[in-house]
Write a structure and sequence with these properties.
Blueprint (H helix, E strand, L loop, with lengths): L2 E6 L7 H16 L3 E6 L5 H12 L5 H25 L4 E4 L6 E3 L8 E4 L2 H8 L3 E5 L2 E4 L5 E3 L4 H13 L3 E6 L20 E2 L1 H9 L7 H10 L3 E5 L7 E3 L5 E3 L5 E3 L14 E5 L2 E10 L4 H11 L7 E3 L8 E9 H13 L1 H4 L3 E5 L2 E7 L9 H11 L6 E5 L2 E7 L3 H11 L18
Parallel strand pairs: 1-2, 1-9, 2-6, 3-6, 4-7, 9-11, 10-12
Antiparallel strand pairs: 4-5, 7-8, 11-12, 13-14, 15-20, 16-18, 16-19, 17-18, 20-22, 21-22
Helix pairs in contact: 1-3, 2-3, 5-7, 6-7, 11-12
């Protein structure tokens, strides 16, 4: 018997028939003898609808009350799923995030998990019940207020529970058949990646791959939780995100054994092409090229609670002794950062500031880059042949990222995907629910 944590996204529990279908899948695992903990997102687009409702009532709703409102979506899902499971003949108990022991900091809207105390979940499993947990939410350790975890919060809830409970695997159910070599909406010939490391998946999530959130992958890597990203609309194998020495169920009666995985010699050089069209670029022109000036710039950015991605500093000119600093960040953080830097212009002594949200980031990811020269040349050649200009470049051991004009991004993704022979010969990828979550 294994302990399996399953997470179902909004498209998987979008309506009553979908909830009943999910209940049958969960019941099959329980009937095979596995202990099952389920984390659910809000139904369909109900979180967006709640946000719109709040905006209609108040132009600036208090963060505490907005969190209280938004957690209602997951509570609806968990209760309905528990009812559906009861009708299959299995005892199911639903729990809010706070009841499940998800302890967070006090940051409303983007709280971080600081501890998990799943005593009530463990007791439910010991009693033979299926535990259903509302994702995306917890309770502040200091204020005792309800908090939400922000984007990807249900994924993070599931992985955190899996780590705390010592689960054998955490299954992330969505409406696509796993992680693909590119977004199937942009590259119809993208194909499913059967096996990927936590390290590669971390780079893909950070580079813009939307199926699995970065925070969840970070948590899984830290606690060595095997992940299985798959579709709730089919019984196909998805993508396994795992390190060596793993043995866990991939179905009610099927198991994965790392001893049977593909040898490293057969692993592809490139795992996939990720893209992100939700970033902006800030350029500070004429920054004095003196020690401590860059530190001062990014201290102000950090104080604005923005996550900086790529940074480029030009070589300063001898005549002026000034340089330009460019960096990218999420567009949601841009206004606050631009305001903070503009306010500090006299202190920082830069000449002018430029901001653009008309950029996109393309990233090529693969552990095989470490030992295969020529990957960069091939990437840049593919972009050149597609007529795509590069604005910024950054690299890691297993990733090369470039910034292009937003209008060129889709074309660039397709060109690079083809250049690295990632196109599938088996037809188009399927997005069952149409949302990719």
């Amino acid at each position: 018997m294994s302990l399996v944590v399953q997470k179902y996204g909004g498209s998987s529990v979008a309506d009553a028939p979908a909830i009943r279908r999910v209940a049958q899948r969960i019941a099959a695992y329980r009937e095979a003898g596995h202990e099952v903990v389920v984390v659910v997102s809000a139904m369909g687009d109900s979180t967006d609808e709640l946000i719109d409702l709040a905006a209609a009532v108040s132009p600036a709703p208090p963060a505490r009350e907005l969190d209280m409102l938004l957690t209602a979506g997951e509570r609806i899902s968990m209760a309905l799923l528990a009812m559906a499971l009861t009708d299959t003949g299995h005892e199911a108990r639903s729990f809010t995030g706070s009841q499940a022991g998800m302890i967070t900091d006090a940051e409303h809207g983007k709280a971080r998990i600081i501890d998990v105390t799943p005593g009530r979940i463990r007791q439910a499993l010991d009693d033979g019940a299926i535990a259903i947990v509302a994702g995306f939410q917890g309770v502040s350790q200091t204020t005792k207020d309800i908090t939400t975890l922000g984007r990807g919060g249900s994924d993070t809830t599931a992985v955190a529970l899996a780590a705390a409970l010592g689960a054998d695997v955490c299954e992330i159910y969505t409406d696509v058949d796993g992680i693909f070599t590119a977004d199937p909406r942009i590259v119809p010939l993208a194909h499913r990646i059967p096996l990927v490391s936590h390290e590669e998946m971390l780079e893909m999530a950070a580079a813009g791959a939307k199926v699995l959130h970065l925070r969840a992958v970070e948590y899984a890597r830290r606690y060595r939780v095997p992940l299985h990203v798959r579709s709730s609309f089919s019984d196909r194998m998805g993508t396994l995100i795992v390190e060596g020495g793993a043995h866990f169920p991939v179905g009610p009666e099927q198991f994965y054994d790392s001893g049977n995985e593909v040898s490293p010699m057969e692993q592809p050089i490139i795992s996939g092409v990720a893209h992100d069209a939700s970033q902006g670029k800030v350029t500070l022109i004429g920054v004095p090229d003196v020690p401590g000036k860059a530190a001062a710039v990014f201290q102000i950015v950090a104080a604005a609670a923005a996550n900086v991605d790529m940074i480029v500093q030009n070589v300063s000119t001898e005549i002026t002794g000034r340089t330009d600093i460019s960096f990218t960040l999420p567009t949601d953080d841009a206004a606050q950062v631009v305001d903070a830097l503009t306010t500090a212009r006299d202190k920082l002594s830069f000449l002018s500031l430029e901001y653009s949200d008309q950029i996109g980031k393309l990233s090529l990811i693969g552990a095989g880059m470490r030992s295969h020269p020529g990957v960069s040349a091939r990437l840049f050649a593919a972009l050149s042949e597609a007529g795509v200009n590069i604005q910024m470049i950054s690299t890691s051991e297993i990733r090369i990222s470039v910034v292009t004009a937003k209008d060129d991004l889709d074309r660039a993704v397709r060109a690079v995907h083809t250049a690295f022979e990632l196109d599938s010969a088996n037809g188009e990828a399927v997005v069952y629910g149409g949302t990719g979550r």
